[in-house]
Design brief:
four-stranded antiparallel beta sheet, Chitinase A, domain 3, 3 domains, Triger factor/SurA peptide-binding fold, 451 residues, 16% strand
Length: 451
């Protein structure tokens, strides 16, 4: 029965304005170009995606409309499965964050809000409303795709076998890479600054208890750039994802209860619990950081400069200096060696480095220790830092001895792609799919879209 309904729609081939118009007033406003299950893909979907891609600087190889159609066909397959999975949930906060990122990109690259409205030929309010459902679907499909490949792993023997089977043309060229270590020095916070921040947060708590809105105060005063514009609201997170002291306080709250002032590595907070689902909580918070006295910044700079000088003169080994004096807990027990949070590797290509580090390291020789420079640490706190260039490799053909990590990542990506493509093919086989004849000449990656 469903298939007959779909075929009837396809024969019609268009969508017309609704019953408020008379037959003589019917006006074609869209065209169905494909159907996946019971979900149509419209001509306007492809055109809108093309405009959004152009506005975001996204280019595709080949016929852009064919590429976009195949992406939408995949998305509809993923979406159908995601909507059956109760563990796949997209919050308003996630949608708003993604919306803000896109709108900020549009404004940055197109111009003002007025220029964006002119580009899309519609008001910002309408543009956001139309983007909201699209973003929600995309976030759901991303979660579904991640779930499909979440358990894919590779073993060392698989990596070695994969590399041996590569032809000489397939072996990638590895660009010049750097390994470096760091020592960081946090400036001291005076008692006066400490007390001022805690007093301000206690005042916020009192105001909220007396009727002020927590979210409004977070928007106005919180120094957490990720959550402040959303009223301090964070997504559902487990205990392990939070700072230990923050987590201890937050997990002991009851819904709507507000915490006492809590100190974490990021600064000071007050927290309000919104909801709890099993071992995950959703909360909002206001973060304030004590202001640093310029004198303390200068003291930190001089202290780390002295340490670096002792290292240069051989009075203390770099590794010992890192262990004794560095404020960075992630690196001080490992000789200050910095690793990528994304890959876990200690090897960086120059474009992947923090800009502040990059500016210093290009001037350095292997084994050299830099002068102190002011930067932000991973918790967005001002720190003085010195770095040591441990190693620098030249561009070369990948090999297992030097580049195992990169080869492993390559093979893992290939294995995930293969698993994902098999899942798509399996879903294709059991799902009704129709593609309009006007797209019959598309060179799809998967030929089975055309049944």
């Amino acid at each position: 029965m469903l298939r007959n309904v779909i075929k009837s729609v396809l024969l019609l081939g268009t969508i017309v304005l609704g019953p408020k118009m008379s037959v003589g007033q019917d006006k074609v406003i869209d065209q169905i170009l494909a159907v996946v299950g019971s979900n149509p893909i419209l001509k306007s979907d492809i055109e809108t995606t093309a405009i959004n891609n152009q506005a975001q600087g996204i280019s595709v190889a080949g016929d852009s409309k064919c590429v976009i159609l195949e992406q939408l066909l995949e998305q509809k397959l993923l979406l159908a499965e995601a909507e059956l999975d109760t563990l796949i949930v997209v919050s308003d906060n996630q949608i708003n964050q993604q919306m803000d990122r896109r709108m900020n990109y549009f404004i940055e690259h197109i111009g003002s809000e007025k220029e964006v409205e002119k580009y899309f030929s519609k008001p910002i309010v309408q543009l956001k409303a139309e983007m909201s459902e699209t973003i929600k679907e995309q976030l759901k499909t991303e979660q579904m795709q991640a779930k499909i490949i979440s358990k894919v792993t590779v073993t060392p023997s698989e990596v070695r076998q994969y590399f041996r089977q590569l032809s000489s043309k397939e072996i990638p060229e590895i660009g010049s890479e750097l390994e470096y270590a760091q020592i960081t020095m946090l400036p001291a916070i005076t008692e006066k600054q400490d007390l001022e921040v805690k007093a301000k947060l206690r005042d916020f708590k009192k105001r909220i208890d007396n009727g002020d809105n927590f979210a409004t105060l977070a928007i106005m005063y919180s120094e957490d750039p990720g959550s402040a514009k959303y009223g301090g609201e964070m997504d559902y997170v487990g205990r392990a994802m939070l700072d230990p002291t923050f987590a201890t306080e937050a997990f002991n709250l009851k819904p709507n209860q507000i915490s006492k002032v809590v100190r974490s590595e990021f600064g000071y907070h007050i927290i309000q619990l919104i909801d709890r689902k099993g071992e995950k909580i959703k909360c909002r918070h206001i973060l304030l950081r004590p202001k640093i006295d310029p004198k303390e910044l200068e003291i930190a700079k001089n202290r780390i400069d002295s340490i670096a000088d002792f290292v240069r003169k051989g009075k203390i080994a770099w590794e010992q200096a890192s262990y004794l004096y560095s404020s960075d807990k992630n690196t001080r027990n490992n000789g200050g060696l910095v690793t990528s949070q994304r890959t876990g590797s200690s090897k960086f290509e120059l474009p992947d480095l923090d800009p502040d580090v990059s500016k210093e390291i290009v001037k350095m020789n292997i084994g050299e220790t830099s002068r102190p420079f002011l930067t932000l640490d991973d918790k967005q706190r001002e720190v003085y830092k010195v770095i040591k260039l441990n190693n620098k490799t030249k561009s070369h053909k990948a090999n297992l001895q030097e580049d195992y990590q990169k080869i492993s990542e390559m093979f893992l990506a290939k294995k995930k792609e293969d698993i994902y493509r098999k899942w798509i093919a399996k879903q294709q086989a059991k799902t009704y799919i129709h593609v309009d004849d006007s797209y019959a000449n598309c060179n799809f990656k998967l030929k089975s879209w055309k049944k």
